[in-house]
Amino acid sequence: MLNKQVAVLTIRLILGFIFFFQGFGKVFKFGLHNVYKNFFASSYGELLPDFLLLCTTYYTSLVELVAGIMLVIGFKRDYALYALASVLVIVTFGHGLKEPIWDLSHVLYRTILLVGLLVLPKELDKFSLDFLIKKDT
């Protein structure tokens, strides 16, 4: 049983850190306006309306940051996973819209880890804030 619990913890931590550091970089290192201007608008400006690109920049970056740290500490895990799943769908749509055949490796392994956590029994996630909160009630 401990092996399964450590496996769930490992998946949650790796996925959480991947998203957290990506969001952290966008928000604090590059700045959201620079991410919007240099990545979103420059790549998708001819394909999608400006307001949609701006909203997408802020939404995906902030969800990666906040939901990533939620996964790391194990707080409201499923809600964090749902939010991150929406980011993966948005990223997949955006890349596919721009270039129908693109490198899926950045999205695919995150999706596999995310879906793995969603289908594994939540009871295995014992090393989490959610478990501690539930244990005290």
SSE inventory with pairings:
Elements: H1 2-30, H2 32-44, H3 50-73, H4 77-98, H5 105-119, H6 129-136
Mean pLDDT: 94
Question: What is the string of SSEs from the N terminus onward?
Answer: HHHHHH
Largest sheet: none
Question: What is the distance, rounded to the nearest whole angstrom, between the alpha carbons of the first and last residues?
Answer: 23 Å
What is the helix tally? 6
Query: Which runs of at least 5 residues are low in confidence (pLDDT < 50)?
Result: none
Instruction: Kindly name the structural category.
Output: mainly alpha
Give the overall shape, derived from the CA principal axes.
elongated
Description:
The chain is mainly alpha-helical. Helix content is 81%, strand content 0%. α1 packs across α2. The relative contact order is 0.16. The mean pLDDT is 94.
Describe, in short, the structure shown:
It is built from 6 helices and no strands.
Key terms for this structure?
137 residues, mainly alpha, 81% helix, elongated
